[in-house]
Amino acid sequence: MGVETEAEAEVDHPVPELGPGKLKIGLDLVEVARVERLIDRWGERFLERLFTPAELDYARARRRPGEHLAARLAAKEALIKAWGRPLRWREIEVATAPSGEPFFSRLPAELASWGVRLSLSHTGGLAAAVVLLFRGKRGAPRRGAAERGSPGGARG
User: Fold this and answer.
1) Could you tell me if 71 and 40 are in contact, meaning their C-beta atoms sit under 8 angstroms apart?
2) pTM of the complete model
């Protein structure tokens, strides 16, 4: 009985809707001060490399933009860890539903057959994100929810 150490490990899941190897989990923590230092050092070059215009607009409209950008960076890192392969930063976009729930409003095409769930938190100088990627036995998850503004679908 060993401890699984790979963040992108696929697991057998006891939930009947999920078959073996159909659940992937990613977790990431980002120091808010580190993101703020990178912004101070590299400015727009750093911001435009990692974030979409919508993400930058969202963060800049908040009282502590660095905290919100750190959370979005953690979300992107957690997604990459769950997927287990590199993804392009700006092909991933994190948005917030009117309810306050975060979701991926844009994802690379290679994730189209996966359901995605995102949880974010930031406090005490840290931003955290957890991402679940999943597929059911019946094939791809329902599409279109994100296109209607709902975080449930996470497609785009």
Assistant:
1) no
2) 0.77
